[in-house]
Specification:
The protein is α/β, with parallel strands linked by helices and 531 residues long. It is built from 18 helices and 27 strands. It has three domains: 192 residues, Rossmann fold (3-Layer(aba) Sandwich), CATH 3.40.50.12780; 181 residues, Rossmann fold; 98 residues, 2-Layer Sandwich (GMP Synthetase, Chain A, domain 3). Helix 2 packs across helix 3, helix 4 crosses helix 5 and helix 7 packs across helix 9.
Length: 531
């Protein structure tokens, strides 16, 4: 009999092999795998007592927490669909995502309860509001306490739901480029195989200590909660990344592996460390993704800290990994600079991933590191589609191939290298920012006639949104005024950090704004940070 793939298998293995091994370190809390299993089963019982059944959506809005991990395994156990949501969004974003996703339960970190209360009347599908807090006495009216809910769940056996591996296990909302978030539907099979690839490519073992520096809402923490659990390694939960505290914790807990966007790596490299501290740092592997890290950053981390950096590439729609950029065996004797250059490339396909780079006619480009085409992929890690958006799904999955919208070159070793984005998606500090969404906000300013948003290099965030604005005749507005206006109405990471004022925007014959000209003319070589 064929047993469907289900993420709960990873915890099931850990419970069978490593029950008394430490599983989670989260602040002062320490849990063994046996204790984690008890929490996961309590989560499953609690949800069933709230009448959550197969296919129902359970949303969670929180910074990194051990409580998010409960749902990573509890939801697939009962066949519920888990929806981790970016906690950095604003109320209108939460309202849209919760309603569009049809969440019946929302679990919210305590500091966001007021934000959700403000939109509660507009949340048409949510029946249960649960607060995640360490201070039950501070629970506001109208909220159920997360820990009390788990603690009071009936102690009955949790019978796993009859789940097909092609059923949706999680819906993850990504900004995309349309201005409206799209719900990426990942199946049990998608997530399961991505986790197996993580174990293989990152060499995960039961002796590892993995740091959750990456926000867990990012494609379920890039699938690492499942992979780390499956091999019986240790999770260290980092709620908020701050270099000083991160290094202290790395030394204390013996970090061996972490996923860090280039922004975090850059912050780490700019944090002062004594020779004694450097000597005390454990040897570690670092996976990075998002905007490509410069060679100098990879070289600095490896030579100064002794931490090996591996670049990976993928999208939320691909669970997320498609490629990995590791030194092949025959490259190990190459000069250091040549090896670093390889590490800065986007990489070669992971196991089970068919990857092509094609021109506008769908023909494969030559592997000459010069020709540019779009990256398309076919794999068991490609999403089933966008939630309730069949037209958007059909636009990106064509003849069985997922069109990433990313433009790349291909070399004779099979490595691709992303050179541009077909879509005008900005990746700032690992966060996706829709240029169309930013432009929509700029147009709401009473002095703005026309506006465009592009990505510019930023020393801290890798990329940052920048605005080019045409003012209405006779109107006046300063750069700071435009930025402050956006910051009042949008999540701050989405807001422009620089503004240029022009008389007109360059357009094609069909009226489309030529953003490549804007990047070249106004922002080439310029980088400005606004705190």
């Amino acid at each position: 009999m064929i047993v469907p793939l289900n993420e709960y298998d990873f915890l099931k293995r850990a419970l069978a092999v490593y029950p008394e091994r430490e599983a989670i370190v989260s602040g002062d809390l320490r849990l063994t795998y046996r204790q984690l299993g008890e929490r996961v089963h309590a989560w499953a019982r609690a949800m069933r007592e709230l009448d959550i059944r197969k296919g129902d959506r359970v949303a969670i809005i929180s910074q990194n927490s051990h409580r998010i991990i409960d749902g990573f395994f509890g939801a697939p156990l009962i066949g519920a669909v888990y929806m981790p949501i970016n906690f950095r969004l604003v109320a209108s974003d939460f309202e849209y995502i919760l309603n569009h996703g049809g969440a019946r339960v929302v679990i919210v970190e305590d500091h966001l309860a007021e934000t959700i209360d403000a939109i509660r009347p507009q949340l048409t599908s949510v029946e249960h509001f649960i607060i995640s807090t360490d201070d039950a006495a501070a629970r506001p009216p109208g909220w159920q306490d997360y820990e009390m809910l788990l603690g009071s769940a009936t102690l009955s056996e949790v019978v796993p739901a009859d789940v097909d591996e092609n059923d949706t296990t999680t819906i993850l909302y990504t900004s995309g480029t349309t201005g409206r978030p799209k719900g990426v539907c990942l199946t049990h099979r998608n997530v399961y195989l991505n986790a197996l690839n993580s174990i293989i490519e990152f060499g995960l073992r039961d002796t590892d200590t993995y740091f959750h520096t990456l926000a867990m809402f990012h494609c379920n923490g890039w699938g690492l909660p499942y992979a780390v659990t499956g091999v019986g390694a240790r999770h260290v939960v980092v709620p908020k990344y701050e270099p000083g505290a991160f290094f202290d914790l790395a030394m204390k807990e013996g970090m061996t592996f972490a996923c860090m966007p280039p922004t975090m790596i850059n912050m780490a490299m700019n944090h002062p460390l004594t020779d004694e501290q450097k000597a005390a740092l454990p040897r570690a592997r670092i996976a990075t993704a998002g905007s490509a890290p410069p060679m100098a950053l990879i070289q600095a981390m490896q030579e100064r800290l002794g931490w090996n950096v591996t670049q990976i590439y993928g999208l939320t729609e691909t669970s997320p990994f498609l490629t990995v950029s590791r030194i092949k065996p025959h490259m190990r004797d190459w000069p250091a600079q040549d090896r670093y250059r390889v590490q800065t490339k986007t990489g070669y396909p992971m196991l089970g991933v068919d990857l092509r780079v094609v021109d506008d006619e769908g023909r494969d480009i030559p592997g000459d590191s010069q020709a540019v085409g779009e990256v398309i992929a076919r794999s068991n890690v490609v999403m089933s589609g966008y939630w309730r958006q069949p037209e958007a799904t059909d636009a990106v999955i064509v003849d069985g191939w997922f069109h990433t919208g990313d433009m790349a070159t291909l070399d004779d070793e099979g490595f691709i290298e992303i050179v541009d984005r077909k879509k005008d998606l900005i990746i700032s500090g690992g966060e996706n920012v829709s240029s169309i969404e930013v432009e929509g906000m700029l147009y709401k300013h009473t002095a703005v006639l026309e506006a465009a948003c592009i990505a510019i290099p930023d020393e801290k965030w890798g990329e940052a949104p920048a605005a080019i604005v045409v003012l209405k005749p006779g109107a006046e507005a300063s750069e700071d005024e435009i930025i402050d206006f956006c910051r009042e109405h949008m999540a701050h990471f989405k807001c422009p950090r620089s503004v240029a004022f022009v008389d007109a925007l360059p357009r094609t014959a069909t009226g489309k704004i030529q953003k490549n000209q804007l990047r070249d003319k106004y922002w080439q070589g310029r980088s400005r940070k606004v705190n």
